[in-house]
TrEMBL record:
GO molecular function: electron transfer activity; heme binding; metal ion binding
Coiled coil: none
Superkingdom, natural source: Bacteria
Record-annotated Cytochrome c domain positions: 52-138
Key word Nucleotidyltransferase present: no
InterPro entries: Cyt_c-like_dom (IPR009056), Cyt_c-like_dom_sf (IPR036909)
Source species: Aneurinibacillus migulanus
Stated name of the protein: Cytochrome C
Keywords, comma-separated and alphabetical: Heme, Iron, Metal-binding
Keyword Transcription: no
Amino acid sequence: MGKNIGVFVLFFALAFGGGYLFYQIKSPVEAPVQTQTIKDTAQTTQTTQTTTSASKEGEVFTQKGCISCHSVSKLGIKGGEVGPDLSKAYATVPDKHGVPIDEFLKKPTTAVMSGVIGKNPLTDDERKAIIAALKAALEK
């Protein structure tokens, strides 16, 4: 039985480590594309216009690859489901992680986000854009 547990632990560690590496290496996912039908008032013909589901204020999440793991549903951003939806992060990060959101984005207090942001640090402008977008999401 001890040998079975050892094999289980070995395979679990390999699977967990492989999954972690997969999400760290995975390229950013583009925002899903939606189509919108516009009717011409003079005619009954229809034209299709392509728009992304992300709002202008949420573009930074796509640019920085956040949507590989996170969604921001209040801004219309459908992303990955591995991480939590960030729609309420502006209000919840300080209580959940013990630091203001600006500090969390500079030096995250979780292992996963430390690895993500450590490999791809945010500039001051990117951090400000993310904070502004998270505040806008909370207010919607």
